[in-house]
TrEMBL record:
Pfam families: PQQ_2 (PF13360). This is WD40 repeat domain-containing protein. Residues 47-294 form the Pyrrolo-quinoline quinone repeat domain. InterPro entries: PQQ_rpt_dom (IPR002372), Quinoprotein_ADH-like_sf (IPR011047), WD40/YVTN_repeat-like_dom_sf (IPR015943).
Length: 437
């Protein structure tokens, strides 16, 4: 992994209105990963700690992965995190599983997943695409450096780098390339547009057909950006611990002091702006019109400081799988060796036995059978995805039943010197000012 070209984050300028922060959870280390839906608010930090909070700010789930979390992304009902060990972990079940392993020569900055296909952006200006079974499909060089943005949809991949934004279709054909003023440091997408935060203090918008749109002016380099559905509002976080809101027409509606550092990633959800910062904070900001009006008058809610729930067990990569009871409901799948690779195929009736199953890479052993809650055909067809929990299949009489442990991953957790650890140029809890282009 490569560090963002940054030095210590600066405090907000004097006189900046304080944001109406409802709750704040201190993860313990700098955080890049954030994902929020109707049920949970997820954060992943530089130490590999992943926490899920409810919307009241209570920690309800905890996980640990071997290396620092760079991003959290949703693909349908599946949630993934990209990590500094060059692997992508599936967080959808009770414990994290290794879903993808990136080539050692790909230095990940950001990633996104669509219908099981993974797009990875690296620091050399390249975007690499892998299929659901981690087979490399193609790689393209968009520019000589940079790559802090990659977003995917059914039409293609949108890659932000040091020179601008480049779009490709899923075959690797370049659709368009547009320059930005300054390097791209973060990206967001809505149904018809992509948003690029840049070192030139702007959020620049492009239609997904490559038509340049509005430019939203901030006062410092833009570390992160997001939008309300349809682009009704555009949000940005700069390297001076401030967050902004603009209307679709480009009018700046407000600028607020986060009070907890610069937002390295953000997401808008239901009148709340969720940010993760270089100080290790995960904060929920009320951005409703009423709350902002109160904040302008100096009235902010009492801050709820959230502590980690020690009673919530931490699920880790490599822990033993449970054994399904005899007669348990589910779909039976089996690991098979084919062409030097271990694939997973369905055994239960009603499924195409020739289709592969997207399945954790760290528990694939030829001949081993598992019982999963369900299988779902991918949107593009041609392979299945696991729904729900994974258990060891019930054993026949006389067979030995031993726990299956993700040995490689478990070893990685215990490793004191992972091969792809980021070389940190600044203290773990500090964020650097991005170098202007």
């Amino acid at each position: 992994m490569t560090e963002r070209p940054v030095t210590t984050s600066r405090a907000a300028k004097a006189g900046t209105t304080r944001a109406p922060v409802l709750w704040r959870y201190d993860s313990g280390d700098r955080a890049f990963g954030v994902f929020v839906d109707d049920e949970l608010c997820w954060v992943g930090d530089d130490d590999g700690q992943i926490s899920a909070l409810d919307h009241e700010g209570k920690v309800v789930r905890r996980m640990k992965v071997p290396e620092g979390v760079m991003s959290l992304v949703r693909d349908g009902q599946w949630l993934y995190c990209g990590c500094q060990d060059g692997k992508v972990y599936d967080l959808s079940g009770a414990q994290p599983f290794e879903a993808y392993e990136i080539s050692e020569d790909v230095n990940i900055l950001w990633l996104d997943i669509h219908d099981g296909s993974l797009a990875v952006s690296s620091n050399d200006g390249q975007v690499t695409v892998l299929d659901h079974d981690c087979d490399k499909l193609w790689a393209k060089k968009s520019y000589t450096s940079g790559g802090w943005m990659v977003r995917c949809d059914g039409a293609g991949i949108y890659h932000g780098h040091a020179d601008g934004v480049t779009a490709y279709d899923w075959t690797g054909k370049k659709l368009w390339a547009k320059k930005t003023e300054g390097s791209v440091l973060f990206g967001w997408q809505e149904d018809t547009e992509v948003y690029a935060g840049t070192t030139s203090d702007h959020v620049e918008v492009f239609s997904k057909a490559g038509v340049p749109g509005r430019r939203y002016k901030c006062d410092d380099s833009v570390f992160s950006c997001a939008a309300a559905p349809g682009g009704k509002y555009v949000f940005a976080g700069d390297n001076a611990s401030s967050v902004y809101c603009f209307d679709r027409a480009g009018t700046r509606l407000w600028k607020l002091d986060t009070t907890c550092g610069s937002a390295l990633s953000m997401q808008y959800h239901a009148d709340k702006l969720y940010i993760v910062t270089g100080d290790g904070a995960f904060a929920c900001i009320d951005v409703s019109e009423a709350a902002i009006a109160q904040a302008r008058e100096g009235k902010v809610p009492d801050l709820k400081l959230v502590k980690a729930e020690r009673s919530v067990q931490v699920a880790t990569v490599g822990q033993a799988l449970p054994q399904a009871a005899a007669g348990a409901a589910g779909v039976l799948v089996e690991c098979v060796e084919e062409g030097g690779k271990v694939r997973v195929r369905p055994l239960s009736p009603g499924f195409n036995e020739d289709f592969n199953v997207q399945f954790p890479r760290d528990i694939r052993t030829p001949g081993t059978r598992y019982l999963v809650d369900g299988l779902e055909l991918s949107g593009s067809g041609g392979f299945y995805r696991v729904r729900g929990q994974i258990r060891l299949a019930p054993t026949a009489a006389g067979e030995a039943a031993g726990p299956v442990v993700a040995k490689k991953a478990a070893k990685k957790v215990a490793s004191a010197a992972p091969a792809k650890k980021v070389t940190k140029a600044a203290p773990a809890k500090k964020t650097a000012k991005k170098v202007r282009a």
